[in-house]
Every structure is written in C-alpha cells, then in structure tokens.
Automatic annotation (TrEMBL):
PANTHER family referenced in this protein's UniProt entry, alphabetically: NICOTINATE-NUCLEOTIDE ADENYLYLTRANSFERASE-RELATED, PHOSPHOPANTETHEINE ADENYLYLTRANSFERASE
Pfam families: CTP_transf_like
UniProt family annotation: Belongs to the NadD family.
Organism whose genome encodes this protein: Paracoccus denitrificans (strain Pd 1222)
Reaction(s) catalysed by this chain's protein: nicotinate beta-D-ribonucleotide + ATP + H(+) = deamido-NAD(+) + diphosphate
InterPro entries from the UniProt entry: Cyt_trans-like, NadD/NMNAT, Rossmann-like_a/b/a_fold
Pathway(s) annotated for this protein in UniProt: Cofactor biosynthesis; NAD(+) biosynthesis; deamido-NAD(+) from nicotinate D-ribonucleotide: step 1/1
Chain's gene name: nadD
The protein's name in its UniProt record: Probable nicotinate-nucleotide adenylyltransferase
Organism superkingdom: Bacteria
Single annotated GO MF: ATP binding
Coiled coil listed as a keyword: no
Length: 200
C-alpha cells in the first residue's frame, strides 16, 4: 500500500465521508458514529477535501483542517485522511474511481448529509458515482424533506432501500441508497465560522 493511504483488505466495508471540515465539529463525529453502527461499516475514512468544486471560496489550509479533525474524532475505526490531495483528485467521481482501482475488493460506501443530496445532481458525473458505490444519506435538520424530493432522489427513486435495510447497504449492488434518521445535530462548519466555537 502506498504511504499515506490507510490499509484495507478485500472484503472490508469502508464508508467515505468527504467534506471541507472547515472546521470539523461534533456533528461530524455524531454522524460518523451513527453511520458505523447503522450501516454496519468496518471503517470510515474522512476525506478532508482540498476544496469543494462548487464552493467559490477556498477553505483553511488542509493541514490545519486535518489536525483539528484528528483532535476531535478519536475512534480507531475512523481514519482522517487527505487522500484527495495525495491522489490529485477534486471531483468525487474521480476519487472513488481511483480508490476502487487502488483497493480491489474493498466495498466503499459514499456517505453524505441530506443537504448534499439536494445538490448532488450538480456534481460532476453524479450518476456514475451512484452506479459505482452505494450511498448512505444522513438526515440533517431542515434538509430531510428537500432531500427526499430532490432531483437526484427522484431520479434514483427505484434504487432506494428502506431505512430498515440500512445494514445491507454496503453489500448492496449499486445503484442503491438509504436515508437514515437519527437524533438530529444542528452544528455546521458555517455556524462555527460565523458564530464561534459553539456554533450558536
Ligand atoms: N450536523 C450534521 N448533520 C448531518 N450531516 C452533517 C452535519 N454536519 C455535516 N454533515 C455532513 O458531513 C459532510 C461534510 O460536511 P462539511 O465539511 O461540509 O461540514 P458542514 O457543517 O456541512 O459545512 P458548511 O456549513 O461549511 O457547509 C457533508 O456530507 C455534510 O452534509
Ligand atoms: O464532485 C463534485 O462535483 C462535487 C461537488 C460538490 C461537493 N463534492 C464533495 O462533497 C463533499 C462535501 O463537500 P462540502 O464542501 O460540502 O463539505 C466533499 O467531499 C466534496 O468534494 C463533490
């Protein structure tokens, strides 16, 4: 395995939580804990992104964001990575394709908050992402309904599994997705940047 890339043997299920993490917060920790449990994942890798292709302003330096993420997320099943900077990928579709080449037999699941499902149809080659990996969507305050009725959700409607089958997601053949409900957490990086460390 290349230096700086986590170890994962064939057959392992790995959730990928991509984000700016600018900064990482308890909401990220909460959804990661829940995703491990509810989707029955062996590992989750945070992909701290060099920058969201749809956001006009660049985030804080990658090293700072990774260092903070490592301070708050301390579960041995979770790896905090700057994989996209190492791979030189910006688009999620390219990141996933590269990881699938590097880790044959590993079952990757893309994880995202419901807010991201709402704009998923604007992502580069999003239908190819959905064809490559199962997708776990995590409810977020104010975004459940917009996510449910989003264009991507409508176009992928037949691939949706009920929440009661969330544990099957990692082994489901894509396209497949589930939206899980959990005790909602209102934190967001934007709130922390604007309002200070507690986000309120
Ligand atoms: N409180 C939360 N509940 C559910 N999902 C969340 C929550 N916070 C972040 N996420 C999800 O985690 C992933 C990474 O989040 P990101 O780094 O963009 O943080 P953020 O709080 O959404 O930032 P911003 O406010 O700048 O958009 C995204 O898929 C996002 O939807
Ligand atoms: O590939 C794309 O076109 C694309 C467009 C928007 C967002 N993403 C990814 O979505 C993830 C969440 O981004 P963010 O900035 O909302 O934390 C992160 O991994 C981004 O790289 C990806």
């Amino acid at each position: 395995m290349r230096a700086g890339f986590p170890f994962a043997p064939p057959g392992m299920t790995v959730g990928l939580l991509g984000g700016s993490f600018d900064p990482a917060h308890e909401g990220h920790v909460h959804i990661t804990d829940e995703a491990l449990r509810r989707f029955g994942l062996d590992r989750i890798w945070w992909l701290v992104s060099p920058g969201n292709p749809l956001k006009p302003h660049g985030p804080a330096p990658l090293d700072e964001r990774i260092a903070r993420a490592r301070r708050i997320m301390r579960d041995p099943r979770v790896e905090i990575t700057g994989i996209e900077a190492r791979l030189g990928t910006r688009m999620t579709r390219d990141t996933i394709a590269a990881l699938q080449r590097l880790y044959p037999g590993v079952r990757f699941v893309w994880l995202m908050g419901a807010d991201n499902l709402v704009q998923f149809d604007r992502w580069d080659r999003w239908q190819d992402i959905a064809a490559r990996v199962p997708i776990g969507v995590i409810a977020r305050p104010g975004w459940r309904m917009p996510a449910r009725f989003s264009r991507a959700a409508r176009l992928l409607w037949r691939a949706r599994l009920p929440e009661s089958r969330a544990r099957e997601l990692a082994r489901a053949r894509p396209p497949a997705w589930v939206m899980i409900n959990l005790p909602l957490n209102k934190l967001s990086s934007t709130a922390i940047r604007v309002l200070g460390p507690k986000g309120r």
